[in-house]
């Protein structure tokens, strides 16, 4: 397998052996995908660099820097929907890109970043008292990996997390270890939106 190859099955075929056959032959043909190229622009339509991407190689959800303002999506399969994320820390802009599988590999994909959103709230315990100094870590749609969005609550239990990619779903846990449960469940923002979660219970 080449570097970065996926380590899970993405080609399945239903095989129904004849009941009276001692042996039989089946031929499966795997059609290789193509490479889809694209460029990244800021919210004003200007090409920008300093962008990080996740899931350009399907299944690799850790953010990696792309070279310049261009990116490539290997193993792009027609009629197979997928998505990837782009994030520019310097300007706090990002994009959740959903591919339908009907994109033309001959035409570069133009992605315009949008202003990131944010969430705020107040961590409280079962008695309603503020939980100060707690580390709140946001994960990508229940993906447990290296977190990119985190903050600590202040003395009043209040917190704010900025730089959230618009329309991406996040789940929040207390602490940096694999959580047993989430205190923030499936929250997302629109471009530039701040979502107030109010009181967030920490058990």
Q: Can you give a write-up of this model?
A:
The structure is a single chain. The chain is mainly beta. 0% of the residues lie in helices and 40% in strands. It has no helices and 15 strands. The protein has strands at 34-41, 52-54, 64-65, 70-76, 82-88, 93-99, 109-112, 114-115, 117-124, 135-140, 149-152, 158-164, 170-174, 184-187, 194-201. Strand 5 and strand 6 form a beta hairpin. The chain starts with 33 loop residues before the first strand and ends with a strand.
Task: List the topology elements.
Blueprint (H helix, E strand, L loop, with lengths): L33 E8 L10 E3 L9 E2 L4 E7 L5 E7 L4 E7 L9 E4 L1 E2 L1 E8 L10 E6 L8 E4 L5 E7 L5 E5 L9 E4 L6 E8 L2
Parallel strand pairs: 1-7, 9-15
Antiparallel strand pairs: 1-4, 2-3, 2-5, 5-6, 6-8, 9-12, 10-11, 10-13, 13-14
